């Protein structure tokens, strides 16, 4: 996809089932069907912070070193934060054979071989969103691009634009929706890492504690804290929660903190307070300095810095000793040849928490100035997205004023904390929550959850709209948990739209199971998977309730998967009817949403149009209330005569159909004849559109014959076909016998204007 918006939307809105069907093995990552061998291939691996993008890259490198991915003779792997310094300049040779690996001999010959065999080269840039400034991609315009010196951004631009080493393979990792699309307008393949399933979370936790005496207790402890277990979908958070759980069990505790804020505070408390008094005081000072660094780097969209820029040796030793920082090496300086060292925050969550801790503790941060960091900016304007967890941690810290350890860290008295808390409460009270877009609403819910304030829960729940749409917005397990926590506290009834949200089965079950969720929409595959799960567990009560709440109308099919899913839904109905009959001995009317479907749009386009339509026709009889069947003209489905014939055969079952739109579908006289023969069986049909097909006079004649017996028909649109004056006259003659018809739209380029004008004078119902 060349369109940035189209690609971004496509990545975000795929349903989970669709992604499972397209799941990749590592061996398939570099397979690009139809790719040109002589051109550079760009592959992007997307995933939120902590999802394991870097681990995936390391695994690829490891497998290559063991003989996998043999199409590559050279693999170069770069951590972008190490090479992102704007003042450094490289040639391609410097980047590959000086910074990454320096051969003992033969550098010139090796580089020449690389230039002559670019298809055998894989370049990996891990953390592509580490290029943190706001400029658009620079252009590479050198006469000798392989030899000239560039900034790293210019060099990357040349690689992507195929001006440097054209034919190589580029593998870029980045967070979703970050600035990667400013630099890469064309992506040959996009892969997204979506995290652990509930089963994988349990497996990871079991493996982590394998062989330890409290292995079973650990898994039980984590699962009992549902919010933390939901966060374990992120591999880095799963590991962190396991570490904390291990610490808690070793200390003899039997409970975990209920919020992320409390989790990270407990983590730091355990790290620092297990020391002698003098050391503990020094550690607290180092922590405050580190928190300020976390915030300052985050404001610049950075997570790394040079070691010599750290304010003191004590801070450096503290941050490395307790795992807040990880060391790394920068490229050698081009002038001195000396290697420079740096430090980076060990993970995204730690930097966010420390940044929030700084804002709470810093003397210059007054209570009113805090609100700008607590804001919930619109989707278009999100200035703090590099530290997007800071508002959540801030909200949590504001409501920990009774925690003695936090009070000792923040150096604030109770009066100051209370004042900041009141400011926050006033700020939340002024928000127009019912006008929030889904992304802003979810962010607010996360912040409210961190406070664990019943008053705030009740306030937000009372302000929610009755119709909540998360259409196309990815709902992670933690998102679902906080949404569920707020909804269950409300006295309102809600209608949820969860289509294309990637919601997992457990999350869908939890939301649908709420008594005050009166109706819901979800991707058909997700819904069928939920019902199959409920059927397997014999939870017939929730199965019945969820089928009654499910809404399908209106439904628009845009892909073959939509048709397959709709077919699966109909098949599921048959299974459920049999299941209920077998278990209770009484009959069931099936799925109400199928019975109540009134409008169905078909928009598969010309490639799969006929194939998909023939499959759709097979299940049309399952929708007894279908009133509107629209083969979207803009999609150019092209079902042709074969599709028209197939549809006409099921007309007798479509007793409620009132509108049939077959515009722009390449139907000829052959198809028109088949339709005309069966049209009288559509006893409720009011509007028929055959606009912009290839119907000639013979087709018009067949239609004219059946118009008088189509008593319910009010509008016939047959313009932009190939009807001549002869066919037009036949339709007009038939119209005289049809007082029930109000409008006949008949303009055709093949009908002489004078003839058409004359016919309109004969009958004013003819529209030109």
From TrEMBL:
Catalytic activity annotation: L-seryl-[protein] + ATP = O-phospho-L-seryl-[protein] + ADP + H(+); L-threonyl-[protein] + ATP = O-phospho-L-threonyl-[protein] + ADP + H(+)
Domain (NACHT) ranges: 41-176
Family annotation (InterPro entries): Leu-rich_rpt, Leu-rich_rpt_4, LRR_dom_sf, MHC_II_transact, NACHT_NTPase, NLRP_HD2, P-loop_NTPase
E.C. number(s) listed in UniProt: 2.7.11.1
Alphabetically ordered keywords of this record: Activator, Acyltransferase, ATP-binding, GTP-binding, Kinase, Leucine-rich repeat, Nucleotide-binding, Nucleus, Phosphoprotein, Repeat, Transcription, Transcription regulation, Transferase
Main location (coarse class): nucleus
Cell compartments where the protein resides: Nucleus, PML body
Record-linked SUPFAM superfamilies: P-loop containing nucleoside triphosphate hydrolases, RNI-like
PANTHER family: MHC CLASS II TRANSACTIVATOR
Protein name (database record): MHC class II transactivator
Organism: Crotophaga sulcirostris (Groove-billed ani)
Gene that produces this protein: Ciita_0
């Amino acid at each position: 996809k060349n369109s940035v918006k189209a690609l971004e939307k496509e990545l975000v809105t795929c349903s989970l089932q669709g992604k499972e069907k397209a799941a990749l093995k590592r061996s398939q990552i570099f397979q690009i069907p139809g790719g040109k061998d002589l051109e550079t291939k760009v592959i992007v691996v997307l995933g939120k912070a902590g999802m394991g993008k870097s681990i995936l890259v390391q695994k690829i490198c490891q497998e290559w070193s063991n003989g996998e991915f043999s199409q590559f003779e050279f693999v170069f792997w770069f951590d972008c934060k190490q090479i992102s310094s704007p003042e450094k300049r490289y040639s391609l040779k410097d980047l590959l054979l000086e910074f990454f690996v320096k051969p003992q001999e033969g550098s010139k010959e090796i580089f020449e071989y690389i230039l002559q065999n670019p298809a055998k080269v894989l370049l990996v840039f891990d953390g592509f969103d580490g290029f943190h400034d706001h400029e658009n991609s620079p252009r590479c315009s050198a006469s000798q691009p392989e030899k000239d010196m560039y900034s790293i951004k210019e060099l990357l631009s040349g690689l992507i634009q195929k001006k440097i080493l054209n034919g190589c393979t580029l593998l870029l990792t980045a967070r979703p929706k970050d600035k990667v699309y400013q630099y890469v307008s064309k992506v040959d393949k996009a892969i997204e890492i979506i995290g652990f399933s509930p089963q994988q979370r349990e497996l990871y936790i079991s493996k982590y504690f394998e062989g330890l005496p409290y292995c079973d207790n650990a898994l039980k402890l984590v699962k009992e804290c549902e919010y933390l277990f939901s966060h374990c979908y992120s591999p880095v958070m799963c590991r962190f929660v396991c570490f904390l759980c291990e610490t808690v069990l070793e200390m003899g505790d039997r409970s975990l903190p209920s919020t992320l804020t409390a989790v990270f505070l407990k983590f730091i408390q355990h790290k620092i307070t297990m020391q002698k008094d003098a050391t503990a005081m020094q550690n607290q000072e180092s922590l405050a300095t580190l928190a300020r660094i976390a915030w300052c780097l985050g404001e610049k969209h950075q997570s790394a810095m040079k070691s010599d820029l750290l304010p003191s040796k004590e801070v450096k030793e503290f941050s490395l000793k307790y795992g807040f920082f990880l060391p790394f090496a920068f490229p050698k300086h081009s002038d001195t040849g000396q290697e420079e060292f740096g430090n980076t925050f060990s993970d995204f969550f730690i930097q966010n928490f420390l940044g929030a801790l700084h804002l709470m503790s810093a003397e210059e941060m007054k209570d009113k100035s805090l609100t700008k960091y607590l804001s919930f900016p619109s989707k278009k304007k999100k200035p703090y997205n590099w530290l997007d967890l800071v508002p959540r941690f801030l909200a949590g810290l504001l409501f920990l004023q009774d925690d003695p350890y936090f009070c000792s860290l923040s150096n604030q008295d109770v009066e100051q904390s209370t004042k900041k808390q009141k400011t926050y409460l006033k700020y939340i009270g002024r928000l127009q929550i019912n006008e929030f877009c889904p992304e802003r609403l979810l962010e607010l819910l996360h912040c409210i959850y961190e406070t664990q304030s019943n008053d705030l829960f009740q306030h937000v729940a009372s302000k929610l709209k009755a119709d909540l749409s998360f259409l196309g917005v990815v709902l992670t397990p933690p998102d679902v948990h906080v949404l569920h926590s707020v909804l269950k506290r409300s006295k309102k009834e809600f209608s949820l739209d969860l289509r294309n949200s990637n919601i997992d089965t457990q999350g869908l079950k939890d939301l649908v199971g709420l008594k005050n969720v009166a109706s819901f929409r979800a991707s058909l595959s997700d819904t069928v998977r939920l019902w199959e799960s409920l059927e397997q567990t014999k939870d017939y009560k929730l199965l019945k309730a969820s089928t009654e709440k499910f809404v399908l109308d209106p439904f628009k099919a845009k892909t073959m998967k939509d048709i397959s899913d709709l077919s699966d839904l109909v098949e599921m109905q048959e299974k459920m009817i049999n299941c209920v009959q077998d278990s209770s001995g009484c009959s069931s009317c099936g799925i109400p949403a199928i019975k109540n479907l009134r409008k169905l749009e078909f928009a598969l386009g010309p490639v799969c149009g006929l194939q998909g339509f023939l499959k759709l026709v097979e299940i049309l009889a399952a929708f007894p209330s279908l009133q509107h069947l629209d083969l979207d003209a803009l999609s150019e489905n092209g079902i042709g005569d074969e599709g028209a014939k197939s549809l006409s055969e099921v007309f007798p079952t479509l007793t409620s159909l009132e509108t049939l739109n077959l515009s722009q579908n390449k139907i000829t006289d052959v198809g028109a004849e088949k339709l005309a023969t069966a049209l009288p069986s559509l006893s409720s049909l009011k509007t028929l559109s055959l606009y912009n097909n290839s119907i000639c006079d013979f087709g018009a004649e067949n239609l004219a014959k059946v118009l008088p017996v189509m008593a319910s028909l009010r509008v016939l649109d047959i313009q932009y076909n190939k009807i001549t004056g002869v066919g037009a006259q036949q339709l007009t003659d038939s119209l005289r016998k049809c007082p029930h018809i109000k409008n006949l739209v008949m303009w055709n380029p093949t009908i002489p204007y004078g003839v058409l004008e004359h016919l309109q004078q004969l009958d004013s119902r003819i529209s030109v």
